[in-house]
Amino acid sequence: MPSSGNISLHPASFILLGIPGLEKSQFWIAFPFCAMYILALMGNITILHVVRIDHTLHEPMYIFLAMLALTDLVLSTSTLPKMLGIFWFGSCEIDYYACLTQVFFIHAFSSVESGVLMAMALDRYVAICFPLRHSTILSPSVVAKLGVAVMARGVFWVSPFCFMVTWKPFCPNRIIPQSYCEHMAVLKLVCADTRANRMYGLFVAFSVVGFDIIIISVSYIMILQTVLRLPSGDARNKAFGTCASHICVILAFYIPALFTFLTHRFGQQVPRVVHIMLANLYLLVPPMLNPFIYGVKTKQIRERVAHAFCQKVT
Question: Which secondary structure element, helix H or strand E, spans residue 175, and what is its range?
Answer without folding.
Answer: strand 175-176
